[in-house]
Amino acid sequence: MTETKTELPVGCTENEDGSVNVPLDYPIKFGTEIITQIRARRLKGRELRKLPAEPTIKDMFSIAESLTAHPPSVLDEMDGKDITKLFEVLGGFLGSFRATGGKQ
């Protein structure tokens, strides 16, 4: 079966395992660490099971926490431009779902 590739946001790179590195335009200071990119792994059934038919932004943040292995406090500090880019990547994992939570 051939998988249709979704175009990644500018600057994002796909890894061999299908995860995606999302570079941050606005790095985050978290403790003593400076986070310059977020790695998001592909969705699994357990994450899809948690999503309602029409996910909200809150639902997307919850999924982002699972897929990035970062605590909510890191995602809360992300710039709006960077979180939007991350949601675009997550939306790409979902196929026809738009990351903003709307229908197509």
Task: Record keyword descriptors for this entry.
3 strands; alpha+beta; globular; 104 residues; disordered C terminus; three-stranded antiparallel β-sheet
Offer a quick outline of the entry.
Helices cover 37% and strands 20% of the residues. It is of the alpha+beta class.
How would the blueprint of this fold be written?
Elements: E1 13-14, E2 20-30, E3 33-40, H1 45-50, H2 57-68, H3 72-77, H4 80-93
Antiparallel strand pairs: 1-2, 2-3
Give an account of the 3D structure.
The chain has helices spanning 45-50, 57-68, 72-77, 80-93, and strands spanning 13-14, 20-30, 33-40. It has a domain at 42-104. It is of the alpha+beta class and 104 residues long. The radius of gyration is 13 Å and the shape is globular. A three-stranded antiparallel β-sheet has the order 1-2-3, covered by helices on one side. Mean pLDDT is 86; it is low at 96-104. The two termini are 24 Å apart.
Radius of gyration: 13 Å
Order of helices and strands: EEEHHHH
Portion of residues in beta strands equals: 15-25%
Helical region count?
4
What helical percentage do the residues reach? Answer: 25-40%
Strand order of the largest sheet: 1-2-3
Poorly predicted segments:
96-104
Q: In whole angstroms, how far apart are the ends? A: 24 Å
Can you summarize the main beta sheet?
3 strands, antiparallel
Structural class: alpha+beta
Average residue pLDDT: 86
